[in-house]
Amino acid sequence: MQFQIIGQTVPVVEVRLNAGESMYSQRGGMAYQTEGIVMNTNARGGLMKSLGRAFAGESMFMANFTAQRDGAMVAFATTVPGNIMPVDISQTPGGLIFQKGSFLCAENGVETSITFTKKISAGFVGGEGFILQRAEGRGMLFLEVDGDAIVKNLMPGEVLKVDTGNVVGFEPSVTYSVEMVSGIGNIFLGGEGLFLTKLAGPGRVILQSQNLGDFAGRINSYGPNR
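and the corresponding structure tokens:
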């Protein structure tokens, strides 16, 4: 498998496959393809995994694209302006944990499943739900990043506090929790919400510069009911 990321505003990743190689994505993720690609939509991983994906806010069914001949190509596009980040899961010990909505596509050897934060309270107050997704196995995973991608390599004990909507993913060695913003004035006047996501090293953290929820709220403020 070979890939090329094209574009800067709303990019696509073109994946060139040899006969028998496969990629899978959420329904509607494919942008274009050449002849020699066969699509098959199914409940990847069985009923329980598909229900888990639905519980995490993703589609129950996945679209699988398999090459029937060498050099066949399929391309997957982002849904909003941003970037596509390739992650070699084979070189990521323990896999990668990421937010719902960040998954774009992956090789057939990458398995995705739901996972829970270590602290249940983080989910109930964190704004994104306490269900995340985890990718393990062998192969390339492609993440959709809103805006620009920022990668931080946290040292042991190093802490980063982030708006939940700006978190893309992190390695399993990173501790994930949520804390309340301090100060009554900050809570009611600061405009940053009640809670921040707390990420503690060691491990790699992937952030995005655009918070899609905040962006959507800004657009809605210009609507007819403002």
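(Above: one complete record from the training split.) The radius of gyration is 18 Å.
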